[in-house]
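Late entry, written up from scratch paper. The run itself happened at the end of the previous shift, but nothing got recorded in the book at the time, so transcribing now.
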Amino acid sequence: MLITNYLKSTFRSFSKNKFYTFINILGLSIGFICAIFIYFFIKDEVSYDKYHSRYERIYRLESDFTIADKNDKFAATAVPLAPTLKVEYPEIEQSVRFSQIGNSLVKYQDKQFYEENIYYTDSSIFDVFTVPLLFGSPEEALTDPNCVIISRRTALKYFNRENPLNEVITIGNQGDFKITGVFRDLPSNTHLKYDALISGQTLVSRFGEENINSTASGAFWNISVFSYVLLAENASIDKVIAKFPEFYEKYMAELGNQIRGSFNLMATPLADQHFYSNVQYDLPTGEIAYIYIFGAIAIFILLIACINYMNMATARSEKRAREVGIRKVVGAYKQQLIRQFLSESVILAFIALAVAVIGVYAFRGIFVDISGKEMNINLLEHAIILPVLLFVTFVVGLLSGTYPAFFLSSFSPIKVIRGKVNINGKGGSLRKGLVVLQFVISIFMIIGTIIVFNQVDYLNSKDLGYDKEDMVVLQIQDTAFIRNLNVFKEELLQNPNILSATTSVSVPGNNMPITVMRVEREEEMVEHTLNWILVDYDFIDTYQLNLIDGRQFNKEMATDLTEAFIINEAAAKSLHWTDAPLGKKLQWQINLDGTAGMNGKVIGVIEDFHMGSLHNPVEPVILILRDDPSRFMSLKIAKDNQAASIDFIKEKWLEFDHQNPFDYYMLDEQLEQLYEGEQKIGLIFTIFSGICVFIALLGLFGLSSFIASQRKKEIGIRKVLGASTESILSKFYMEFSILIGISFIISIPLAYYASLEWLSNFAYHFPLGMGPFILAGIISIALSLITISLHIVRAARSNPVNSIKYE
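Output as recorded:
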């Protein structure tokens, strides 16, 4: 009976106060929807690579090189490193390597598509990773040369069926391969993404065991593969690394002593790969900071929704004071009243949860599209989320109702009946404190959103040291086409809309090769690791690189092909050549016998330019001239009628290559993809920030409605005494502006510190001034005043006679 009485009283209260009940349910349900979506986002992020059954024992090996005092850490390792470690140390149960072949044209009959995610790998992949084969045998699928396994998605794409075993496909210039397996499509939360895996025995059969898996000293200093090891049960990777100096002395020291180098083995647990990798030439990774940020956002949103309920409940306390007094007079105990008010808030929370569940299913498609993740947002398929949701809802209900329950139940029945209850003392101070807390969070979120978008805009608009606009990049796959690339280039330049053209072994946005060179230092030649790009005569002009010292490559200087190098400022600084770099000696392509493939001198210095993203500083790079074509061609086209220019390029392409489809991209669009993660995070952050502000304003809307109603008599008396509508509005605006101002002052240092922490992830970021903070303050005050005006203006303009009669 007691529970039934509580329920009746609760729903009676909801029915009598529909407006405030609606505001509270709306705020809480939006908070629950956001929290549920954030839960799925975080769950997807933290579960990267954990679908592998042995993920806790899998580690990726990484390289830590120091050569001539220059330290570099790389995600890749030497080809023989992992299998040789397996032979040497019983702690390693198995190893597997992956070598990416890059963007390749895959053909089957009349179907052909460019594919990015194709790797050579060892047959031991099935012993290390979980790669369920839908068709084919793990014991045989990758043991023979010229075999390939493909994903189910790829099978349907080329064959329109799941089982294409024994069919033959052509992969770029790698050759023909028989399909020996079809594996289940990889989940999206894996760091190593592949659609096709080619048998590593293919390379052994082509180039010989002695060349592919050589254990000569030099072979361990040439990094080119991703290497993973599976530890034995109860083994420790720390023991392997502790023993590594012995391995180094046995296999690597011979060449290391010659080049004044050293090498340390590093290893990252597979489960940590997505968040904690900090090496060069890595696969795309995530940011652990975003997990904490979005977790905090979920808490913030729920907290703001709880504050709304507390504010509404305490603001309406005078309305319910008589109810409390009568209940006490007829024998109700304080504990019973507390349970009554707590049950109201808990029931309201569960109603909000029910609304939220409907909202999650209604908006899940939109959230998946925005996040760019392949998430299965189905509450019924996640056993843990339902009990967690029920528990969180109960806690939210208690948290929302605790203070109002104790506050309302503490009223003295005698004072209530006599009308002597003062609710504007402690309760009023609490409401102001809660409003401040809400807007501290909201302003913090607004500042964060402005900072994120300012940084993304900075990344996309910063001068990279070259001209990225109107640049068309072609990647040539066909060998015969590459041999005729210079003729193709000359024919393209006959079109006046093709302003310039160049070929190179790499372009901005792609990794550069890196190798050990010999450089002149204090009249001797010492080893140093440097990035390099093979370019033709037109590379500097086409990309409009700024030559700051010396000269460019010159067709009239025959020795430029064999003896000339151009370096950037970062290379000059790295080599300690900042005073007089011109004429300094360089040796490129050092052979195992110590001879150099190319001896030359520096003929020019160019201003630093960014080949990669602005997350990292400018890399030292050397330009090396080659007149033989490379696989990348960059074309600067006129701004006008670019579609016609691209059609012309395509027409010429098809004249030179009848078999491969036309393939190109715009450089500026490609570079924007380097910051795709920041753009998505910025969009999600903006949405949740907007929701935080909306819920806070929703509470302010309800609170201002109640205050306008409660103080209607005061407004009427002021108007009778001659106060204008503007002066009354100013008084209320000032009260709320002071609260928002206090919130602004509190939020500034918090937001400033958080912004600096986030911006520290970038080697380059926009100058953090007061602009974003001032703008956030203006936005919050403007939105707040507009919100409260909806009720206060109407109350201030009402007939004062009716206002005085009120109450």
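The two ends are 36 Å apart (CA to CA).
(Scratch paper discarded after transcription.)
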